[in-house]
Write a structure and sequence with these properties.
The protein is an alpha+beta fold. The protein has five helices and 32 strands. Strand 4 and strand 5 form a beta hairpin.
């Protein structure tokens, strides 16, 4: 009996131990399940957030920040986004009599509108009709015609002051290495004055530093749009000349393409600004000149290496085509002289607004052979209505066999070549893809006209 009792107790103990093990296993499974469920919910939340972000970006990029419409003309455009918009009724001429929210636009459908020249509205866009996404300016402009040019031009630009390219060191008369400007001047600074006197030319600045000797000089410098005064003390180098250890530049030259001439003889060119080759900053221009240029050589573009047009520029008065008055991110602009106007014989074309551009065939006008501008076929592959980079609203691919044979596609020097589609002047070539010279970017002509 005792043995049976002991055996029963052992069985109960084993059963209890098994129950404890099963309970522990169950608890571990519950914990794993909770962890798995938490990870699953976290992954789902991250995925939903990413999806919402991608959707938001995709829709936002399809809605331009500014829409230009022609005065007095009924025009249609289609954004094709799941959003609605309310006209806020704000005009350049004062408050509109349109009550806020009274006009609602469905942006998933074709929108047709007509506006007077003195009108300018703000449009509040709401995703799915309730989630505010952005405000869009509707600006009314006069219909305009421009002469497409496509002519190569030589460019000479004089900086406003002296541009600091960088700082360096040199051996002093005592054999010690000096760098007086280090941590004082920066690449991209513009030296406007020295000891209160204006600086205009690089040679003049260098001569005045040498003449100043070892006395501390006060430089009036423009940095990121702000004027400040900095002190630098020159040091005599091994040759006996006083220096401050700064590389400076006062001009830039190059070859590009004239884009258009308007009815008043004003021109636009390049489609992008003139940046300093070393600092990559937009050059502050005091004045500039356009020169007649002949293309003497073309290097075809290859994978990883863009091609280049080489032009012969003769800096003589009889070769001057005009005066450059502005250098902006949208191009260079100025006034043509009689010589330039006499070289252009094409008829003006109406401008095409960005919402009118279609993916498909188009043409660019450029000069790559016999110093004669002619049209070549391209394909517009994408239109970015609200691209962050103002110079890359149009994506295009060169399809013309002759241009591909001559240049391999888009090469340096073709910047500014007019882009024409359906009889309208829609933009200008600005960049080439380094890895594929057949492909490149363009700027909307309306962006160039906003300079």
């Amino acid at each position: 009996m005792k043995e049976k009792k002991d055996r029963g107790e052992r069985i109960q103990e084993q059963a209890g131990e098994e129950m404890v093990v099963l309970l522990q296993c169950w608890k571990r499974r519950v914990r794993r399940y909770k962890i798995f469920r938490g990870c699953l919910f976290a992954a789902l939340a991250v995925s939903c957030t990413l999806l919402a972000g991608v959707l938001y970006y995709a829709i936002d990029s399809r809605i331009p920040s500014v829409i230009h419409v022609r005065a007095g003309q009924e025009q249609s455009f289609q954004l094709g986004v799941p959003a609605k918009a309310e006209i806020l009724g704000v005009s350049e001429q004062g408050s509109s009599n349109i009550p806020e929210g009274a006009v609602e636009i469905d942006l998933s459908r074709t929108v047709t509108m007509r506006a007077a020249l003195d009108s300018s509205y703000q449009m509040q866009v709401k995703l799915f009709g309730f989630l505010p996404i952005k405000q869009v300016g509707i600006q009314v402009i006069e219909d305009q015609e421009l002469i497409p040019v496509g002519m190569p031009i030589g460019i000479y630009v004089k900086t406003d002051g002296v541009l600091v390219v960088g700082t360096g060191e040199f051996k002093g008369a005592d054999g010690v290495t000096y760098s007086p400007s280090r941590n004082i001047l920066k690449s991209g600074d513009y030296i406007r004055k020295m000891n209160g006197e204006p600086i205009e030319r690089k040679d003049d600045f260098i001569a005045r530093v040498e003449k100043n000797g070892n006395q501390e000089i006060v430089l009036t410098v423009e940095r990121e749009g702000t004027l400040t005064e900095l002190c630098v003390k020159p040091v005599m180098d091994a040759s006996g000349k006083y220096k401050i250890g700064a590389w400076v530049r006062d001009n830039a030259q190059g070859v590009g393409t004239m884009t258009y001439i308007d009815a008043d003889g004003h021109f636009g060119a390049l489609g992008h600004g003139i940046n300093d080759v070393d600092t990559s900053t937009l050059m502050h221009m005091e004045n500039g000149t356009l020169y007649q240029t002949d293309i003497v050589d073309i290097k075809k573009g290859t994978v990883g290496k863009p091609g280049e047009m080489t032009g012969m520029i003769v800096y003589s008065n009889d070769r001057i085509l005009g005066e450059i008055t502005a250098n902006s991110a949208r191009g260079i602009f100025g006034e043509c002289n009689e010589k330039a106007l006499g070289m252009v014989c094409r008829e003006p074309l109406p401008i095409g607004l960005k919402q009118e551009i279609e993916e498909g065939p188009a043409q660019i006008l450029c000069t790559v052979q016999d110093n004669t501008a002619r049209y070549y076929d391209v394909e517009i592959t994408a239109v970015h209505l609200d691209h962050d980079n103002v110079n890359r609203g149009i994506e295009l691919t060169v399809t013309d066999p002759e241009l591909l044979q001559l240049t391999g596609g888009i090469v340096q020097g073709m910047s500014g070549s007019p882009i024409v589609q359906n009889g309208k002047f829609i933009g200008a070539v600005t960049h080439v893809l380094v890895q594929d010279s057949t492909r490149g970017y363009g700027i909307f002509i309306e962006n160039m006209l906003e300079h």
